[in-house]
Design a protein that fits this description.
By secondary structure, this protein is an alpha+beta fold. It is 37% helix and 17% strand. The chain folds into three domains: 36 residues, no CATH class; 274 residues, no CATH class; 230 residues, 4-Layer Sandwich (Glutamine Phosphoribosylpyrophosphate, subunit 1, domain 1). The structure holds 6-diazenyl-5-OXO-L-norleucine.
């Protein structure tokens, strides 16, 4: 067959050229990185994260971020940097980071596919009994579980950080403690945020002359911004740990001071409690969400289980199509939150004491069954899920930091004293603030704790038991590599804050700064109220109210410290809700 020879048509030629030319131009002038890059480089993005190529630390303390980063630059790994940052915050962020608290560190090492959850949660002292926290009428007395000597659980922070370093780190404990010792002994300039946080707890702190001596000037006057906060006793304690390891804290000179003070002041922690404290390596809980792998904290935190349970339910709804913070999105989120928090009150506690049905709670089938009951038009009243309650609110304080190194190793760490400055009591001669974590137990079934969380038998107080937590250090993998490392502060708000950081990135395509800055919502089943931050638009609030929600607009929620890694690029953001943090990489 004779091929028809097409006649050259100038119009057709121009048409073809006009199609091809923009494509060639696009490929030529757009670097490959920008094509596959994250919206961080989107000039239209409203907020931009910090950016780096090798490693990054994101924390709520400039000093901790810089101390951790220094370790990364020296060739240390993410665990080395995290432990260094953790000890540094015990000095520079005393409202949450004291050696007298506890927490959780989640580690993911892509080289070995190893994921570990270090559990250094506080434990109930051997002598602790629920009856000690009741008044004459047999009701829970918040003063006792939150403010006095018996509010403190056996601290886990020193054991946890030392264990992480020993098992997964490469530097010495002495190196990890060096910046903390320096900052404690030589001081660092107090900033407005530190001064303000102290003035908020001053009345409570007056019960502890030792705390007043450290955190206020003679006569109880506040430090002025820029004046150095020097913590000599804390420096000595840190030196003792650097020289003798965690034994100094649990059996040596520091232990002597803690237990001596407990005896004098009617506290519960004994030599035996300290000597027998152990941080544990647990298996993280694992789930998946729209093709991403989720690793998070297992019990005794409720964080990981609830996060995965909520994600499993949400997977059945096209949130991306519904739109960020649209009425429909908030409605399904709130319903999933209620269902998950109801389960928290029932089934979660210390797995060494109770049989937590983790695999059922994080199974996709279970979530499908639960979410099938969600009415697309109406809020389900919480008392149709279970009996009601009320939530007192008190200012807590926890802190989270995230780290990634040049090998892609990731660490997500959340630790706390529970309230801001814990019980407010410092052990004389040590610089160690005591936690008030005993309030996280369900002292009487159904009676809410300081975060309005209720519980039952699973989280009942027992000697040696770890109290249930909401801390949710989380690492999300994409194609087997850490993609998103995040966690937050905020008591009961932690889990929903982390949930929204994840959905903001995965469902709504936000960069990590936009994801952190976006307005948050929260429901915890009891009390039956939908909390939102300021900034949710009035129309949405009205529509939600019409659906049956009691919408309460108020305080900010959580403070997430997050890192995202895409290809060779690392992006990080410290939450703007708390000043004083820093996301920095190299
Ligand atoms: O472990 C818990 O869930 C609580 N003790 C955490 C307290 C907290 O996050 C306070 N923060 N703002």
């Amino acid at each position: 067959m004779r091929r028809l020879k097409k006649k050259f048509s100038p119009i057709r030629f121009i048409q073809v050229l006009s199609l091809i030319f923009p494509m060639i131009l696009f490929l030529y002038v757009t670097p490959v990185s920008a094509v596959e890059a994250y919206p961080a480089f989107d000039p239209e993005a409203r907020f931009h994260p910090a950016f780096a190529r090798q490693g990054m630390v994101v924390s709520e303390s400039v000093y901790a971020t810089r101390a951790g980063l220094e370790v990364l630059k020296e060739g240390g790994n993410a665990v080395d940097a995290a432990v260094t940052a953790g000890f540094t915050m015990a000095v520079t962020y005393p409202r949450a980071g004291s050696l007298g608290g506890g927490g959780f560190m989640l580690i993911y090492l892509p080289g070995t596919n190893e994921a570990a959850a270090i559990d250094y949660r506080e434990k109930a002292p051997g002598a602790a009994r629920s009856s000690m926290y009741l008044n004459e009428k047999g009701e829970v007395d918040g003063e006792k579980s939150r403010h006095g000597m018996i509010a403190a659980g056996v601290p886990g922070t020193v054991a946890g950080l030392a264990l992480a370093l020993d098992k997964y780190g490469t530097i010495t404990l002495e190196r990890a403690l060096r910046p903390a010792i320096d900052l404690a002994e030589n001081g660092f300039p107090a900033d407005e945020e530190l001064i303000r946080s102290l003035s908020r707890v001053k009345e409570r702190m007056k019960a502890s002359p030792e705390s007043m001596k450290i955190f206020f000037k003679d006569g109880g006057e506040s430090y002025a911004a820029g004046e150095p906060l020097i913590q000599k006793d804390l420096g000595r304690t840190l030196r003792q740990i650097a020289e003798s390891g965690p034994d100094a804290f649990y059996e040596g000179a520091v232990a002597e001071k803690i237990t001596g003070f407990m005896k004098e002041e009617g506290g519960l922690i004994t030599k035996k409690d300290l000597a027998s404290y152990e941080a544990l390596v647990r298996k993280p809980v694992r789930g998946s969400y729209r093709g991403y792998d989720i690793y998070s904290m297992p019990p005794p935190s409720s964080g990981g289980v609830l996060l995965i349970e909520m994600l499993n339910m949400l997977e059945g709804f096209p949130l991306g199509t519904y739109g960020h913070n649209s009425t429909r999105t908030i409605h399904v989120m709130a319903e999933c939150m209620k269902l998950a928090y109801a389960d928290r009150s029932m089934y979660l506690g210390d797995p060494d004491f109770v049989d937590v049905p983790v695999s059922r709670l994080i199974s996709k089938d279970y979530a499908r069954g639960l979410s099938a009951g969600i009415d697309p038009e109406r809020a389900t009243p919480s008392d149709r899920i279970s009996p009601g309650g009320t939530a007192p609110r008190e200012g807590g304080n926890t802190t989270h930091f995230s780290v990634i190194d040049k090998w892609g190793n990731a660490v997500s760490n959340t630790y706390t004293l529970n309230f801001s400055y814990g019980s407010g009591i410092t052990v004389p001669g040590t610089g160690i603030l005591l936690n008030n974590e005993m309030d996280d137990f369900s002292i009487t079934p159904g009676v809410p704790n300081a975060y309005g969380l209720t519980g039952g038998e699973y989280n009942a107080l027992a000697p040696g038991k770890r109290m249930l937590s909401s801390m949710t250090p989380t690492i999300v993998l994409r194609d087997g590599k850490p993609f998103l490392i995040t966690g937050s502060v905020g008591g009961s708000l932690i889990i929903t804050t982390v949930l929204q950081v994840l959905t903001n990135v995965i469902d709504f395509g936000m960069n990590i700064a936009e994801a952190a800055y976006a307005v948050r919502v929260h429901h915890q089943w009891l009390p039956d109220e939908l909390r939102t931050e300021r900034g949710l638009n009035a129309d949405t609030i009205r529509l939600l109210s019409d659906m049956g929600y009691s919408v309460v607009t108020g305080d900010t929620m959580g403070s997430a410290q997050s890192i995202v890694k895409i290809g060779d690029y690392i992006y990080g953001t410290t939450d703007p809700r708390r000043p004083g943090g820093l996301a920095e990489g190299y």
